[in-house]
Amino acid sequence: MVLQFCNEIGILPRYQGILCHDHWKPYYRYDFTHALCNAHHLRELECAWEQDQQSWAKEMQQLLKTFNQAVNDAGGSLTKKKAAVCRQQYRDLLIQAEIECPPPDIPPGKAKRGRIKRSKARNLLERLSNYEEDVLRFMENPLVPFTNNLGENDIRLTKVQQKISGCFRSEEGAKIFCRIRGYLSTRRKRKVNASLAFRIVFEGKLPEFIE
Predict the structure, then answer these.
(1) Region 75-94: what's the mean pLDDT?
(2) Is residue 75 part of a domain?
(3) Please, are residues 20 and 37 in contact by the beta-carbon 8 Å criterion?
(4) What is the residue range of 172's domain?
């Protein structure tokens, strides 16, 4: 239903950039470049360490944080040489993780349909391995963030409103709400003072970041 809604309002079908998301599989139905949110990975790695005592998860968590700091220190992206060194460190750790968190055994004498159930830690390990490019895309492309938390923050108040009120009274009201929230979010990202942003609107003008 969510994808149907996105298709109907024309957001994802027209999108031509890089989509940073939480690895919700239906997003991969869209044929554009993907990047995975590492804030989600950090939380899942913390869980794998605290609940399942997976030491590789603690090391991977620290490694991703180190990569992120290196990117920030470098001004937004790493050189190909530095990125190659980081990728090798990443792959070496995944090899160690395979020993500590191996795939589940196939039950003897049983032809089981579908994929054999895996632990959350194992699923996370396979995602980090199979989607390496999307996990580490932030290292060399300055347009790709380490996390999509900024995008999630933009929709958080919408979810809060939905939780409190249950729904919008009308489609027009929902559009007005989103328009206002979009304006305020954009002015914050462009570091425009809130009072100035409101004054410009009430004067019937458009701020520079919209023109």
Answers:
(1) 97
(2) yes
(3) yes
(4) 149-202
